[in-house]
Amino acid sequence: MEKIRVIIADDDNFVRDGMRIILSVDEEFDVVGCASNGKEAVELAGKHETDIILMDIQMPVMDGIEATGIIVERNLGRVLMLTTFDDYDLIRRAIEKGAKGYLIKNHKPEVLKQMIKSIYFGIGVLDDSVLEKLSGKTANAYASGFCLEHFTAREIEIIEQVAEGLSNKEIASKLFISEGTVKNYISNILDKENLPHRTALAVYYLTGKK
CA-CA distances (angstroms) from residue 8 to 29, 83, 109, 122? Predict the structure, then answer.
C-alpha cells in the first residue's frame, strides 16, 4: 500500500513533534508537513498532495474548525480533529465543517494510527468519550429530533451500529449480512438525509441535529 500522507497542525511544539516522530518511524505514514496554526495547515495542504490532516482546534491566527471548513471545501484532504476538548458545541461545529473524525489527545500511538487509517479508508471515527458526550447530552430532549419514521427497521439497525462506531465489516458480522449490503444501506441512508458521511449520521442519530 502507498504511504498515507499526513499533515500535523498543532500550536504545541511538543505535541506536534511527538506526533511527527510517532508517524515518521512507521513505514505506513509519510508526514509531508507540520503547521502551528490553521492558516499554515491550509497552505501546506494546498502545496502538498495530502490524505489526512491531524487538526488541533484552538490555535492562533486561524483555529482548526475554520481551517477544516476551508480544507474540506477545497477538497485538500480528510480532517481528523485531534484535541484536548470534548465540548459538545466544538464537536458539532467540527463535524458540520466536514471533519471525518474526532479524537481526544489521550491515546496510545497505535490508536492514533488506527484512527488515521480508518479515515483514509473512508470510515468516519469518533472517540469513545465523544460518543458518550453526544449520547449523554439530554437524550430525551433530542429523541424527537431524529425522525425514525424515515427509516425501515433494518435501516435503523444499521444506523444504531454506525452510531456505536462499528465498521462495515463488524456491522455485517453482527447483522449476518454482507459488507456490500451494509455499504449500500449506509449510502442510501446518507442520500436520504443529505448527510456527507457516516460520522455526521452518528451525530444526527445521537443528538437529532444535522
Answer: 12, 12, 14, 19
